[in-house]
Amino acid sequence: MVEDVWSTVDDYFGQLLLGRDPVLDSALEANTAGGLPPIDVSPHQGKMLHLLARSIGARRILEVGTLGGYSTIWLARALPPDGRLITCEIDPKHAEVARSNLAEAGLAGVAEVRVGPAADTLAALDPTADGPFDLAFIDADKASNAVYFEQALRLSRPGSMIIVDNVVRNGRVADAGSDDPSVVGTRLLAEAVAREERVSATVIQTVGTKGYDGFLLALVH
Ligand code: SAH
Ligand code: DHB
Ligand code: MG
Q1: 10 in contact with ligand 2, CB cutoff 6 A
Q2: Where is the signal peptide (predicted)?
Q3: What is the CATH number of the domain that holds 137?
Q4: Pocket test residue of 72, 139, 142, 144 for ligand 1, highest count of atoms within 8 A of CB
Q5: What pLDDT, in 10s, does the model give residues 68-89?
Q6: CA 156 – CA 183 distance, rounded (Å)
Q7: pLDDT tens-digit map of 158-215
Q8: Which ligand is nearest to the CA of 182?
């Protein structure tokens, strides 16, 4: 199976480049124990987010879709001591596990979980008091991707980076006739980004332990 090769290669490079990380391991164990679905970003993807955040010197990070906070930990670890991360989660159970995982990771003072529909949480954020956010990571319900992107843009500044997870989903995004709300939402996102003059964007398709998917990366200019 080609998926086995993807995982084997992820593991090979993971042993060399990611090393052991008991904090992240125990966060994933807590997610499993709490019955959360295993739909976190992969370790390599988490480190990619971390490196991108560091490379742009991010001080404020916005996340949409917390789950158990696995990606949140990777991102929050990129922040300086006075940095701040706000992450939006609709499910109180997920938020509870995430808060516990963030506390165990020593990040409770840096990363704040806001519970509720992300569209409401984002609409209530102020671009100057809460932001501007240097990096936004969008990874919640895919049907609302265009809404989240618009809000992330409102809360950004020139130079901010906006990253959207799961834009490929085994290639289903290319099906113009799909009635899957996730596919429709992601296609609406792509069309909105294409029309948006304030950003320059690309999509990178990925394979690995989480299958075949991809990220959209947009730079605000
Ligand atoms: N970013 C996480 C994975 C997020 S999974 C990681 O990589 O570790 C997607 C999450 O989005 C789930 O926890 C789900 O409950 C949440 N979600 C779904 N719809 C939402 C909404 N309308 N508002 C906020 N969060 C939502
Ligand atoms: C799903 C959501 C995700 O954010 C992800 O990375 C993988 C799968 C899902 O809803 O199935
Ligand atoms: Mg995702």
Answers
A1: no
A2: none
A3: 3.40.50.150
A4: 139
A5: 999 999 999 999 999 999 999 9
A6: 25
A7: 999 999 999 999 999 999 999 999 999 999 999 999 999 999 999 999 999 999 999 9
A8: 2
- Is residue 152's pLDDT more than 90? yes
Distance 102 CA to ligand 3 centre (A): 18
Which residues are within 8 A (CB) of 75 and not within 5 positions of it... i.e. 6 or more apart? Answer: 49, 50, 53, 61, 63, 85, 135, 137
Residue 85 dihedral angles phi and psi, to the nearest 5°: -130, 135
140 sits in the region (left: phi over 0; alpha: psi -120 to 50; else beta) called beta
Domain residue limits at 209: 2-220
Containing H/E element for 33?
helix 22-33
Neighbours of 67 (CB within 10 A): 25
Number of structural domains the chain divides into: 1
pLDDT tens digits, one per residue of 123-146? 999 999 999 999 999 999 999 999
Ligand 1 contact, 96 CB (< 6 A): no
